[in-house]
Amino acid sequence: MNTEREAGRDIPRIVESTINLMLARDVLQQEGIFRLSGKAKDIEQVKDSIQRGGPLDFGYLDNFSVAGILKMWFRDLPEPITTHRYYEDFLNYASTTTASFQPLV
């Protein structure tokens, strides 16, 4: 899946589209939404379509498949969101309690 930075966009269209669809469907509280797998065939078809330059059309998919597309995009990134450079900082920050919450930036 194309994970290159899109010109003029801070958030990639696929990330924005999948999250907006899940918000519209009110599924973020659905148990297992990011743990359970969607239909692999459906996810692969959407991935292939996107790689061929097709539209971001996945509104017909079940909730788990939409979440699966989002998970696949993050898995395919060349470098993880929590980069190796900041991994220890992330772990230290994540271990703090909400009472001592301090922004990193």
How would you describe this protein?
- This protein has helices at 13-24, 40-51, 63-75, 87-94.
- Helices cover 43% and strands 0% of the residues.
- The protein is globular, with a radius of gyration of 16 Å.
- It has a domain at 13-78.
- The chain has 105 residues and is mostly helical.
Descriptive labels:
single chain; 105 residues; mainly alpha; 4 helices; 43% helix; 0% strand
Give a concise summary.
This protein has 105 residues and is an all-alpha fold.
According to DSSP, the number of beta strands is 0
| Strand portion | under 5%
Average pLDDT taken over every residue: 85
Sketch the major β-sheet.
none
Low-confidence region ranges = none
Helicity, in percent? 40-55%
Structural class: mainly alpha
Reading the helices and strands in chain order gives: HHHH
Number of helices: 4
* Shape descriptor: globular
Distance between the termini: 30 Å
Give the SSE layout.
Elements: H1 13-24, H2 40-51, H3 63-75, H4 87-94
Helix pairs in contact: 1-3, 2-3
